[in-house]
Amino acid sequence: GSLRKVVKLPEGEDENEWLAVNMVDFYNQINLLYGAITEFCSPHSCPEMKATDEFEYLWQDNENYKRPTKMPAPAYIEQLMTWVQSSIDNESVLPSKIGVPFPKSFPALVRQIFKRMYRVYAHIYCHHYPVIRELGLEPHLNTSFKQYVLFIDEHSLASGRDYWGPLGDLVDSMLKSD
């Protein structure tokens, strides 16, 4: 079947609920993919959180890192995954009880989470693709990322032409091929 169909909001489904379910699903997929290559991504091998040299990502949150902070890729990814997990676990952000409304800020948070999780895909593609291939995970990475791209496209979560940065060509081909 088409991945384009998989990412569409099902009829009668609440949009925030759909965004939340998919955010958690992609978080889990990224966790598994990165977990498979974590031994190949160390502060020594990846001293900066980069995709390509033009795309270095600095970490910032509202608690421990109030200013954009340079850090090794594994530290950045750990901060990111912890931050996403704490959003997922926070009832005021992601209510688990039926009928409890999502906060007004939820769509903006979802956009920020998707933008940041994209950086893990970008880092894996640009720095660890040979290992992914060796481990036989190439189909999983490509399918996961394509679904991610289509989901972001379908729900207008990307902002600006340069959103995809170093993977722009790959993203363009994925959007055209489905």
Structural overview:
Helix content is 56%, strand content 0%. With 178 residues, it is mainly alpha-helical. The protein has a domain at 17-137: Butyryl-CoA Dehydrogenase, subunit A, domain 3 (Up-down Bundle). Helix 2 runs antiparallel to helix 3, helix 2 (15-37) packs antiparallel against helix 6 and helix 3 runs antiparallel to helix 4. The longest helix has 23 residues, at 15-37. The protein starts with a helix and ends with a helix. Zn(2+) binds at residues 41, 46, 123, 128.
What is the overall number of helices?
7
Strand segment tally: 0
CATH class of the domain at 17-137: Mainly Alpha
Major pleated sheet: none
**What would CATH call the architecture of the domain at 17-137?**
Up-down Bundle
Task: Classify the helix fraction into a percent range.
Answer: 55-70%
Which class of secondary structure composition applies to the elements?
A: mainly alpha
Compute the CA-based radius of gyration: 16 Å
| CATH superfamily (homologous) name of the domain at 17-137 | MOB kinase activator
Q: Distance between termini?
A: 10 Å
Unreliable segments of 5+ consecutive residues: none
Average pLDDT score: 93
Looking at the structure, the CATH topology of the domain at 17-137 is Butyryl-CoA Dehydrogenase, subunit A, domain 3
SSE string, helix = H, strand = E? HHHHHHH
What is the approximate shape? globular
Strand content: under 5%
